[in-house]
């Protein structure tokens, strides 16, 4: 498959090399793929996309876009010459231009600007909104204009930086699905930064995980979720309990001491009787969370454990357990 983006040995530091934002990154994205970039705050997500966009220059390494070297120590192609479309969290529309003119503005080279602008307006479902100004649109509609503007010049790569974080939960999921359906329809290759790992699991062909400026795993969503390579990766995708010595003892599970083991909260069964590993627990505290409750438990051997459950829990004691097939194992 042909590669749209190739990143080799990419390194970036700030403060005269004192703090590393990215260390020796290597990865590629195939044509037509959607890649999500996920990682805790400060892991280097923004720095990575700023380097790809050409808004920062690397200390080391190279970026190849559509088989063309755009960034290295010797060569730097200006951001506007990289043929990249950008969609930001805060839409970045011109307030004094209507929808049509906001989109035409980005079409510097095109001959049939109006026709192309109309094409992308129709594509994002904003037909008849051409004459509206940004302040006359909802947040979701503004984000669709931003997407249309980014797609209009037919970019080689689309970068989306936290595109839905300004929207409320209901709107987010609806717009997320709409936006990524449009992206898939156009076949454009996309890389997007998100804090919401559900977004990444739902729409990305592959997910790239950053930790302290290093790439720690890049895989398709289901592999990443089912076979995380570290507790850090597992924890990004949901509540995960590390099975320390005390917990292993409480559940009487014969897991090797020299490996790190963990269990996802959703694989811990409340009121368990037929699990392989079971222990009695008393409830120290219940916190009501709407659809779920959080329980702080004291296990038989005195260990504390916090679990989240949507099951009705009656009484002050219960049996909890899990099965060996659900245990995650890491070498760290
Ligand atoms: N211009 C800068 N000057 C100095 N340090 C910077 C600069 N930009 C980023 N950094 C540092 O580089 C590291 C990576 O930052 P970056 O913004 O890329 O992380 P991030 O994963 O996008 O974080 P967040 O999710 O909070 O936006 C951080 O330690 C940050 O403090």
CATH class of the largest domain: Alpha Beta
Order of helices and strands: EEEHEEEHHHEHEHEEHHEHEEEEEEE
> How many strands, which pairing sense, and closed or not: the largest β-sheet?
6 strands, mixed
Strand line-up across the major sheet: 6-7-8-3-9-10
Number of helices: 9
Q: Are there runs of 5+ residues with pLDDT below 50, and where? A: none
| DSSP helix fraction | 25-40%
Report the sheet-strand fraction.
25-35%
Number of domains: 2
What CATH architecture of the largest domain would you give?
Answer: 3-Layer(aba) Sandwich
- Counted beta strands: 18
**Shape category:** globular
Mean pLDDT across the residues is 91
CATH topology of the largest domain: Rossmann fold
What's the CATH superfamily of the largest domain, by name? P-loop containing nucleotide triphosphate hydrolases
Secondary-structure-based class equals alpha+beta
What's the multimeric state? Answer: single chain
InterPro entries: AAA+_ATPase, ABC_SmlMolc_Importer, ABC_transporter-like_ATP-bd, ABC_transporter-like_CS, ABC_transpr_FbpC, Mo/tungstate-bd_C_term_dom, P-loop_NTPase, Transp-assoc_OB_typ2
Domain ABC transporter: 5-237
Protein name: ABC transporter ATP-binding protein
GO molecular function, one term: ABC-type ferric iron transporter activity
């Amino acid at each position: 498959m042909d590669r749209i983006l190739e990143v080799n040995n990419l390194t970036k530091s700030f403060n005269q090399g004192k703090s590393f934002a990215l260390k020796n990154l290597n990865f590629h994205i195939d044509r037509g793929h959607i890649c999500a970039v996920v990682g805790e705050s400060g892991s280097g997500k923004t720095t990575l996309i700023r380097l790809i966009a050409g808004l920062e220059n690397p200390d080391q390494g190279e970026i190849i876009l559509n088989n063309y070297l755009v960034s290295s120590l010797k060569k730097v192609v200006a951001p506007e010459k990289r043929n990249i479309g950008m969609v930001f969290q805060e839409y970045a529309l011109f307030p004094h231009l209507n929808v049509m003119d906001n989109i035409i503005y980005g079409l510097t080279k095109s001959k049939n600007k109006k026709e192309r602008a109309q094409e992308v307006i129709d594509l994002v479902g904003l037909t008849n909104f051409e004459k509206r100004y940004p302040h006359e649109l909802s947040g979701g509609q503004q984000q669709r204009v931003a997407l249309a503007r980014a797609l209009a010049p037919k970019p080689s790569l689309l970068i989306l930086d936290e595109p839905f974080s300004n929207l409320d939960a209901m709107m987010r999921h609806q717009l997320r699905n709409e936006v990524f359906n449009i992206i898939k329809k156009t076949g454009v290759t996309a890389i997007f930064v998100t804090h919401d790992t559900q977004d990444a699991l739902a729409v990305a062909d592959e997910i790239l995980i950053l930790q302290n400026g290093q790439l720690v795993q890049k895989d398709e969503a289901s592999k990443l979720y089912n076979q995380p390579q570290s507790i850090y990766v597992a924890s990004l995708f949901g509540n995960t309990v590390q099975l320390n010595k005390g917990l292993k003892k409480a559940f009487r599970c014969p897991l090797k001491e020299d490996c790190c083991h963990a269990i996802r909260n959703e694989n811990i069964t409340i009121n368990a009787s037929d699990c392989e590993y079971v222990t009695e627990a008393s409830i120290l505290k219940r916190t009501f969370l709407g659809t779920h409750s959080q329980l702080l438990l004291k296990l038989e051997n005195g260990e504390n454990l916090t679990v989240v459950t949507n099951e009705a829990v009656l009484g002050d004691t219960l049996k909890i357990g899990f099965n060996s097939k659900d245990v995650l194992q890491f070498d760290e």
